[in-house]
Amino acid sequence: MTDATQTTQVRRTEDVRRTSRSFPWSGAPGMAEGDLRTARRRWYPGAFFGLAWQVLLVLAVFTDGGSVRKHVVDSVVLAVVYVAYLVAPELMWRRRLPGRIVVLSTFALLSVLPLVPLGAVAMWTWFLLASLVGFVAVRMWVAAVAILAIAAAQVVICGIAGWDVSSNDGLLFAPLVTVSIGASMTFFGRQRAAEQELGVAQDEITRLAVVEERARFSRDLHDVLGHSLTVVAIKSELAGRLVDRDPAAARSEMADVERLAREALQGLRQAVSGYREADLDAELVSARAALQAAGIDADLPANAHAVVADSRSLFAWVLREGVTNVVRHAAATRARVTLTRSAITVEDDGAGASDDLADGVAPVGAPLGGNGLRGLRERADAVGATMTTGTSDLGGFLLRVGRGRR
Length: 406
What we know:
Layout: H1 3-22, H2 33-52, H3 55-62, H4 68-92, H5 97-112, H6 115-118, H7 126-136, H8 140-161, H9 163-168, H10 174-245, H11 247-276, H12 280-293, E1 297-299, H13 309-329, E2 334-339, E3 343-348, H14 372-382, E4 386-391, E5 397-402
Parallel strand pairs: 1-2
Antiparallel strand pairs: 2-3, 3-5, 4-5
Helix pairs in contact: 1-10, 2-4, 4-5, 5-7, 7-8, 7-10, 8-10, 10-11, 10-12, 12-13, 13-14
């Protein structure tokens, strides 16, 4: 990798980090087509789920005893609001903050339109506005203020319609529903922002780990082969000069050449083996950085000196998979890793085992599915180790792999 390529990758990483902070979960300006497709997959399933609740409002509109003309007008107005709700994020993506404010303000005005034909019952559509604000707002306090303003406007509408009428029609629940849904979408959006930050941090950690590993491998090759080949060349030259004058000395020198060549070959094999296998010390550094990036209190050993050599590679894979599950699935605030001579334990205080974890964390006692933990079990079985899962004394999930007794 050239210096120019590394510089370009660093700049791209910094650009992603800056745009991720500025436009957390509705898509950064200039986002790639792949990122745009991902944003769509995240938004539209939740948006259609939100619209499903509007069925109650539609039924109320068509059972109010109004004329056919009124029902047609009401349906058109509601359709405009619903379509605007679906496409609003599409209009915001790739736009900077001023453009997003314009789109959001326009949708807010459209949300007021149903008040004219439908009356106070139309404010049941306003929780769509609250959910949209909560999902795309750049700052949490902005979302909170906007959602409370929407709820306050609903309270005012209830007062105008009359408190008795609003109570009988259930309209007094509208502000509570709006605040609840808006808060849920706000925290969901903030979670998406944290996941994006974590993804950026993990990409940077991975890139730095690759660079460091390449440097380590280069140093190993230089240390293993540089000195040995130099001595081999000198001794070979000396043996060539001695072959006629002192054959016994020449044979001794060639024996040293053979020995040095075998040592160099063994060192090369060890270097290549270290390059291909996971490094436990490097995984400890990566795990600590990943947990800190996710805001999880990490209790990890300072080093892996206590682990025997033939278990280090396996434990490195266990640590990587265990920490990945903690970060992605556990919803934990604390994680603990324990290393002994022949065992590694990864624990958290999160949600515990669940059969819907993508990496195969199944309920305790159930068969493990997915690729992550199943792969770990296969690795453990291959070297005679035992893998167990259960409930940690921290209250979450426990993953342990050991060889023999502790």
